[in-house]
Give the backbone structure.
Amino acid sequence: MEEELDISESIAERVASETLIVDVDGFEGPLDLLLMLSRSQKVDLRKISVLELAVQYLKFIEKATELRIELAADYLVMAAWLAFLKSRLLLPPDLTDPGPSGDELASYLAFQLERLEAMRDAAAKLMARDRLGKDRFVRGLTEDLRQRKTINYSANLLDLMQGYARIRTKDDFRPFVMDRDSVLTMEQALERMRGLIGFMGDWTDIASYLPDGWSEDPKKWRSATASTFAASLELAKDGKIEIWQDSIFSPIQIRKRANSD
Amino acid sequence: MIDDIQEESLFEAPAILEQERMVEAILFASAEPVSMREMTKRMPHGVDLPLAIHNIQERYVGRGVQVVRVGDAWAIRTASDLGFLMLRETVETRKLSRAAIETLAIIAYHQPVTRAEIEEIRGVAVSRGTIDQLLELEWVKLGRRKQTPGRPITFVGTDQFLDHFGLENARDLPGLKELRAAGLLENRPVPGTEELLPSDDEDNQQENLFEDKVSDIEENLNN
Amino acid sequence: MIDDIQEESLFEAPAILEQERMVEAILFASAEPVSMREMTKRMPHGVDLPLAIHNIQERYVGRGVQVVRVGDAWAIRTASDLGFLMLRETVETRKLSRAAIETLAIIAYHQPVTRAEIEEIRGVAVSRGTIDQLLELEWVKLGRRKQTPGRPITFVGTDQFLDHFGLENARDLPGLKELRAAGLLENRPVPGTEELLPSDDEDNQQENLFEDKVSDIEENLNN
């Protein structure tokens, strides 16, 4: 019978220890645990016996350690501090000790517990309020604030003048190569004519010496005509060709000089 | 029928004012118009929904929001005359783009000028948007068609343009000489500038209005 | 059209009833509280906004929707006794942990408060996720740094927090006065650490600090 009793006791103990494990998990730190323990005193937190609380806490930690429950460092630090506080509270005050008295420490702990409890109450009150999306609702059919942006463009006379000046100056600076495709240089004309002189028979209009495709575009035609004419004069000066025009504005004709070569 | 009677007796219908509050809250919080059926489902039994809706609608007559019927459903909407409150107007001042300034300058100095001519002077294509912008700003407008093949449209400056730039008339535009004097132009005028100016006969046939302007501009530019 | 109205208003503000309609329309159109500044920006010049809001608020007393103050802003919310009519289709916010709820309360009642202070009050480390969750809900935000060694960042409540819990401002927190009277919102120094604090004046300073805190709360919430 006695054995049975022992067994039942040990079962009760095991149940208790299991509960303890669960509880340790559920506590939000040592202060929370202390707050829970303080409730057993059933008094105003300001009148709580911190000494009794310290004893309870230390007992709890001791038991937890016995049951090899992993305790976070926080709990052990608190245990050490409470052990210190307990000794302070039990011993008569040492007036030579410059540190805080046991009562001061005790009242601070009581303050901490009271404050934590107050914050818990406040949190509960807060959560119990009529909350948005639960008790109170916002407008469902909202109207978006449309944005209409009016842009005023600004420009002053200086901008305008600078803009115009920019264009006009740009023309002046236009690189020569840009224009080259519509310009026949005299060197080019000379080279071309030198090659053709050999095939020259009778008087021929210099217009027929213009390179292919240079007679259609007026710009190109002007350039090619001018350089071809200049090249002709050059060749005539060198004695390679003869040049002849029968009247003003009539076609200019050239032919190879007989005694050249 | 019997059910109705029983339910009515089980739940006392709320007072009509209370019913109105309920309709008000439901319409306010719903993202979409709420049908009568939907409201009936959500409200306590025994309510006189048509009356409650009617009262609420009346209550909002002349207010900033209105209770309106949308098909078979009801909704609260902003009063139509207050729509402007949902619009935030902002005014932003922006510098005109370089392309727009240059195009505007060419139109101002060479008016009337065709798009092709503008492109020739700028040396780059003029985007449709640039001219549209100037037209929108009412700084340029369409002039007469040019009497050349294709009869291209021309662009001319407007009175608003003169106004904005503080000019009495196009004659006041500073000439090349003045631009040079102001240090804006350092180079000699480009030979052939005159060609771009509307000095042909056909242009002289344009409105007399333009004639003096044009010749003045020309004069300025040739200086 | 709009310009006309605004220009007109430069000389003559719209009648108060008209102003009320406008406030009504603006508040109805927005799910978020609308600040006085925003309303002023959107309404014609010369309106007496406080009066218009006051009148509108009065008008809705006892109705299905209420005009409520949220910090420096105003909003319309359904009357809380009618919550049962609403469809709770909206996704339930993640259930807040006990740690998060406590941390929220501590921030609300002690703001501006540093993380170390929160930990001191709770007697346990605050996990990163807890504060993140509150920041994500936009119920708390970062306040200014505290002028103490290390210049730690502080946390303060937001307008969304006030809106969610139906508070006009942080002074309306339930039981705030009692807590303050009981000295539970004071920053009492840990015995034996006084030496680390500047001087005996500390307590007086503490009080001043707290005064500051209150005005800080206001300031933060008004932002």
